Amino acid sequence: MGDGVRRALGDKSESWAVAAASALLLALLLVGGSTQEATGTGDLVVRLLSLPILAWGAYRLLHAPLGTLRATWLAFAGTLLLIPLLQLAPLAGGGEGRAALADDLARFGLPPPRTWSLLPSATRDAAFSLLPPLAVFALASTLSHAGLRRLAAAIVALAMASLLLGIAQLGAPQESLLNPYPQWRPALGGFFANPNHQAALLVVAATFAGAHLAGLADAAEDRVRPQRMLRILAAGTALALALVALPLTGSRAGVVLAIVAVPAAALARRPSATGRGRAGLAVGLGAMVFGALAALRWMRTDAVDDLRGPLRAASETIAARFAPTGSGIGSYVPVFEQEAPPQLLMGSYVNHAHNEYLQWWMEGGVPALLAMALGAVVLDATLVRLLRLPGRDRALGLAAWIALAAMLAHSLVDYPLRTPALLAIAAALAGIACAEATRARKPASTHVRHGSGRVPGRHDSTAAPSR
């Protein structure tokens, strides 16, 4: 890659523009796409707006070094988009569930399903809904370190805005303009219809805030300056608000995940290049996992009225009937109503399986399993690459990785990634982790250049990613 392109990728003004475009798209999704049923003009506008942003991100990716890790991330993103597109193709035959459905349709003189997906319109919409998160990932994965810090700060600011809106909603009437979903009583949801999804965003914000506070406290060589004190105050306030509000959302999973994610992000800066450092980090993480399990047991409530277990069991049975092709991305509601046992048929419809991976298996079949396996591989490779870096160099990327892992863990008992806003934020976290893991680092300097203001061990934050 030529010097001119390197300067373009590392240009501060462009970095500001890229971070601002990513943050703007996240804000639009948060305001207008915080529920999985987001449809209408606003949703269409956001998807159309994401097209030039996606093209911009693709241009930057074409002019950035590829490398194995970045190529694997791109392959994973492409696989997610390919699955719903593949399901729009014609398909003959299928699993037991598809054959039973064809028999039922034949009784009424109707033809069997012609495409891989049983609900092509929903699958087509699911493919279009991936455009904004893909655009966010493409831009974030090419940002400079300074730009990534701005993007992380924007995510925290959006979480605080949603939290403040939720607090205002509690004191306003149900039909107030402050409540985006007047059909439900306000419950500290903010921009979200589901308070559990507000909790997922607060966990991400707390993780970034905790990591930033640890970095500010660890900078012993820096002089105390007003700007640094303001950053400490801002990060501390965001962390405190997120931790205090999490139990108020009613999300037990959110509280447990914060117990693990925030200390893990704070420990991310600890040296681990030596065996002793890695052992200390492993012991610390193990202790936090044990604390999380203890907290989960302590918060366990009577699950007699909790339908999530039976829903997941029924969804698993349905998924096996539609294997190996799956029922089609976006087809969960009608397929579940058709196949569910009578005792789970209620006046209100079941919108999701409350287990993202089980629902992917039901809707996507074997291709979805392969995509999840590829995602696990790229996450593991990114973590290994980040842990090999010095503490300061890996702090931001590892915080993003931990926040993403918390969101993926939350998906075991809920469906945060089914909301457009949280899916795009997960894409931003993946982009930050990818960019930090693949960025070129200059070797630490052994001398301070007089008059330059450089400190030994500091690196150029605008260096372009390399192989």
Describe it.
The structure is a single chain. This protein is an all-alpha fold and 467 residues long. It has one domain. The chain has 17 helices and no strands. The longest helix is centred in the C-terminal third of the chain and has 32 residues, at 356-387. It is globular. It starts with a helix and ends in a 29-residue tail after the last helix.
What are the key terms here?
single chain, 467 residues, mainly alpha, 17 helices, 66% helix, 0% strand, globular
Quote the beta fraction.
Answer: under 5%
H/E order of the elements?
A: HHHHHHHHHHHHHHHHH
Quick one: biggest sheet?
none
Q: Indicate the overall shape.
A: globular
* Alpha-beta classification: mainly alpha
Low-confidence stretches: 298-305, 444-467
Integer-rounded radius of gyration: 23 Å
Number of helices: 17
Provide a compact summary of the structure.
With 467 residues, the chain is an all-alpha fold. It is built from 17 helices and no strands. Mean pLDDT is 81; it is low at 298-305 and 444-467.
What are the SSEs and their pairings?
Layout (H helix, E strand, L loop, with lengths): L2 H8 L1 H21 L8 H22 L5 H19 L9 H12 L12 H10 L1 H10 L4 H26 L24 H24 L7 H23 L3 H16 L7 H24 L9 H14 L10 H8 L16 H32 L3 H20 L9 H19 L29
